[in-house]
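Can you please make up a whole protein chain along with its backbone structure tokens because I've never seen that pairing?
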Amino acid sequence: MSGGSFNWQEFLGRWQQEWVPRADADDDEGEDGGTGPGSPARPAAEEAAIVAAEERLGRRLPPSYREFLAVSDGWHVDQPAGIYQLGGAADIDWFGDPFDMTALYEEGLGDDPTEEDILLAGMWRRALRLETDSDMSHALLDPGDTDQDGEWALYVHKGWGGEFPDRYPSFRAYMEAMYRGFHADRVDRPDFVNATTRAQDARVEEAHRLTLRGRYEEALALLEEARSFGRPGSAVLFNQLRHLSAPGGAQDYGLLVADPRYLPELLPVHAMTPARGEGRLGGDDHWLGMMEARGVPRSTAEGVLSALRDGSHRYAPAGAWGRAVAEAREAARWGATDAAWRVLRDALPLWEAPGPSLVAPLGLLADPVLGPLVTPERGREILATPRAGEKGPALESAPDLDPPGLAWLTGPAMYGRPLDAYRCVWVEATDPTGLPALIGEEGAELSVPTDPGEASRRAPKPHEREGVELWEDRAVVAAGRTAEGWAFAFDGHSHRLMGDLFRSPAQAASPAGRAVVVWREPRSSSPDAGPAAFHLSVAERGEERYAFTLRGAEVERSGAIPEALDPARLFRPEDSETDRELRVLEALYTELGLSLPRFALTRGRLPTFTTWSWTRAPQEGEGFAYLTFVRHRP
């Protein structure tokens, strides 16, 4: 409502015409000074009365408050647990800070306060008090906090709340917010029907149509206003649009979560936060109790929460959309996240809403494999796609997220920086499900798709495992398939050094064809440390064909290295460590067609397993040291 010309007569007249007391209000509430039973208004103040008030106060009143008084000399705001009555021209006076709030707020300013903090600290002594009846609350106009139109900011301080006051840029903005609150407080009354409620409900219906046609930005504007009036259905639709345009956040869908039509989509989404251990105090019991209170059977909620925790949950809608979801999951399961997204994107028009309150496939977000694919950009792509039988303009597809090849390993991959270290085994003409049998420790099996980083951090160290020698270096690797068809086992979270006991798994991985191993040691932050090692070995049918290890300018080599991969051709004396690494990675892509899916390895979910040791047992005369570091919290 704010902005542009404003007609106080029309605005207050509409409010007065729509006036009904709250369901919990006293029978005589609102009659003090009103124009009739339950009326919020007072007769207009004469110009002379307004001028007299300004002379008494020594200040000209801000424009919107002055214009208000000329229409109604006070108002029954009827704000629950807050301001009840605003006084007229003869009632207002300087606040005077009777509770010494200035000292309290100045004490909290700190060494580098913001302009807003300074304004708030000084507000209490210079503010104009407007309320004449309240619940330990104050409506304060601040002449020190003004805008280009001469408006004074209005602060509402709830003395019983212990919170910072709410700020409104002007008296008009405050009154518009109170009008919206007046509507929201009465939304459950069946007799509260008027032109405003009908207009806002029409906006919700139009927003619903626009959303399914892919015009979600227009729908958001309509829903934002309707939600401020508390109109039924507006918050649920608004939350869905916000949730998909910013998938990392959580949203609450209230009682809708227990509706059998929506429960398969919404209950897993609700369970994502407690499944990550990010719930409120009370943990699982608190969340389960909250779901029970909304009508969800406890056993159902427990089952969904458990499935999300162990990674076994599957988003499984029916029909053509459900078949596309299953196809996309199989692709994403092995790292082909861009291909999986294309399947989902192409099938989005086939999605059908299980009921009128759902406008998008929110259940995707809770799927452990497909959920990470829904970035904010892709969430907006979902919202911009016409669906559920609606038509709309053709959508321009967002670009793929995975770069080709391996060069991305030297660039920002996680948290804006390159991977500190990595090692990988590629196996030709092999399915990823066969990797544990080739290079896995005894009894190794693929896990459910999981965060590779979390799997590595949770893995026990050698000294924590019975039957594992301290010299062993068993890697927790993510398994998948490259775009070119190689199976891979990748460890991007190792902080182990290669050392003299290194044993390449290439030979063991190559009984049926070629296998390639790359290991880049972690870089050291110490200026005295030597350069990190970079190793390449290639085997075929159980025999190593060639290998080299690069450390600084020194190269150890064996076998007949192809010219395209020959360090003598790839490296120049002036190259940096990163330059050398990048040249090898580019050559591996060009010569052997090796790649890795960046998104799946850094932000997605892949099955993992533990390999046998990448180091051999020390022989007689060889030294070995094993260190562990334990961080103790103070």
